[in-house]
Amino acid sequence: MRGQIFLFILLLSILVFYKSFNQSEKRDIQFVREKINLSTASKEELVKLKGIGEKRAERIIEQRSKGRIQKEELIKIIGKKTFDNLSSSIFY
Predict the structure, then answer these.
(1) pLDDT digits 0-9 by tens, 11-50
(2) 36 has which bridge partners?
(3) Which of 24, 53, 60, 72 counts the most CB atoms within 10 A of its CB?
(4) Residues 28, 21 contacting (CB under 8 angstroms)
């Protein structure tokens, strides 16, 4: 009997964790529905992109202050994998 109660509580805990995790993922995905212009985006907008932290956002802003940011420069800053993941969410 104790084993069954323990198993029930364990499964219930896993279910609650799974549901709460999915909800936070959905909120993150919903935020980036429209493309973000890297030439005009603020630091706060940039850090909301998945894979872009404060340091990378600052480097993007620094690079664009020198002129229009190019694809190759952006890849050097954020990395190829991050660029591939964000390519549908950004333009420059």
Answers:
(1) 888 888 777 765 555 555 555 457 899 889 999 999 999 9
(2) 90
(3) 60
(4) no
Q: Where are the domains of the chain?
A: 1-31, 36-91
Entry pTM? 0.61
Left if phi > 0, otherwise alpha if psi is -120 to 50, otherwise beta: which for 42? beta
pLDDT(78) > 80: yes
Q: CA angle at residue 32 from 29 to 34, to 5 degrees?
A: 140
24: helix, strand or coil: helix
CB atoms within 10 A of CB 52: 23
* Cα(50)–Cα(46) distance, integer angstroms: 9
Please state, as a whole number, how many other Cβ atoms lie within 10 Å of the Cβ of residue 77: 19
Phi, psi of 45 (to 5 degrees): -70, -40
